[in-house]
Design a protein that fits this description.
427 residues, five-stranded antiparallel β-sheet, 25 strands, 20% helix, 27% strand
Amino acid sequence: MKKLFTVALILILLLSVVPVGASADTADNWVCAWSTSPVEAGLNDIAVLDKLGIALSSVSSRVVVTPTASGSQLRLTFSNEFGTSPLSIGGCTVAATAANQRVLSMTTIKIVTFGGKNTVSIPAGGVVVSDPVKFDVTAGQRLSVTTYFPCFNTQRTIGLIGGNTYAAVGNYTRVGSMLLGIPLELSADSGDYQVIPSLKSIDVLSSDPDACSCVIFGDSTVANEIPRMLETKLRANGVTNVSVTQQAIKGNRLVADGIGTAGKVLGEAGLDRFQRDVLDQAGVKYVIVKLGINDIVHPHCASMADKLTPVTFEEMVEGYTQLVEMAHAQGVKIYFAELTPWKGYTRNVLGAGDDVQWTPEIDALRQQLNAWFASDDCPADGAVFFPSMADPADIYALNPAFTPDGIHFNADGQQAFVNDFPVDIFA
């Protein structure tokens, strides 16, 4: 009898330390299904509030994203990492998106809570993760996260890629239509930007014990639809347990922060953001690094010539090696993607004309690094190359059909990138 009592007591004690709703099988199956890289910028700095017409405080943002993983629950991460004061969230909902991106599927709206409350204050420099929300997420479907910010204009942490955002005055968290909402988007010489206030990532609870994420970590060459396109290819090839997420910042460099008037929008050095943007992501098992071309090109741009010193092969190798060591220390496989050709790119800045010209001398470092990626000296788990993307008539240039400017990829270029991407690294 005493033995039975002892066993029962032990069971009661064990059960008492397991959170309600959690289980040993599912506790570790959170996987990131969507993400963006936060940068430091006020909404006034990038003229977003000007688009709304007046100085605003109480605003709702509706961010429409496409997750690349399926699950029975989701949780949201909001960031105030670059904020100088607390950021208040006055309400938040998640819903499936109707045919029109500004309209919700009303029967799917779920309230998002934080510690059981509908509101939360994120301290300066901090992040907050929502409570789990029961929501059947399917990879490839569109979701809308609608967030009400009582002090919208205090935002200083935003994403600039990965979703479409609409904003309207007032609390729209339970309003289906935001047809009159203003798109938060910008067009610049460096490309188009989708402004994503505060929302940093969406995780899903997967029923697959092998579910994991692959992070594409890089610059403007992968700040596009490549993650969604690659996930579609993986599923078509039977790889259904790997989500593909995006941590790309336009103008980003590996070994140095952005500089100049728009320096903060170019992000922190890849070395400094790698832990936060990649290794802290839920379920990460793979990372594809396509970062380094800006380290090579920017010091030779007329607009930056007096601010930057050209990098050396040794400096770049040291930086890449640090990424490998950090990834391997956490059991993450890391692959370096070819630094693709750029001959013909001139980087027109603010309509001032050509900012840089390709030369064999500048391009030599890119070729040297690509050779190192493929060599036995490189400590990464492998390298990924894109042979079909080069111009058949000139291997130092991209195929003109794949690029709008000589360095970035149009829709056909993104598809060529994905076509060349091997799926066997996920076997």
